[in-house]
Amino acid sequence: MMPIPSPSHMGTFPPSENPNDLGIPHIDTHQDLFPDYYAGPASTPCEPKHKLPGNDTYNGGNHSAPVINESNSLPRVPPGSSGEGLPYAPIHWPNVGDIWSWRVGRKVNSYGFYSDRFIKVPESLRKPNVPKIFSSKPALERFLRSNFPDTDVNAFFASFIWKIPAAVSLPYPSCEEIQFLTLFFFYLLWLGEI
User: Which parts of the sequence are annotated with region: Disordered (predicted)?
Assistant: First the structure.
């Protein structure tokens, strides 16, 4: 069997302008092995601390409801707390003087917001055989669409913050802790300690 001839440049590397370059290709093993962790094509491992996931809905020009922005510092709420009005419930909707109330349970999701979140309609909207407390956006949206068909639901939800931040600390490590522990693990692996 005859060998297949190779091009003359195979097996060599192009000349480099760097005098310290010994012609050895640099391979970032960590980035090749863990593309997700190093912001590769799949995903990024952590949300920036200054960005809170939540209401990013445009307020469609609702004249009676101010737009609340989650990037402002929000007061953190202890478990089982309740309150009225802004920032966690609307005010002056649909009538001036209507103040909605809110309550949280004890469950906190991995982002640090309450999973158990309830909103209560104001006295002026309470009717027999109609729900007065809602625990989800879809249920509240159905109530709004059935009782106020001309309402801009996006503007309604933009007028307050749906996701309430918890005052409890989560048992999850921060991004910096995860990165440190990962690098420490690889260091121990490199030393042969693991």
Answer: 44-81
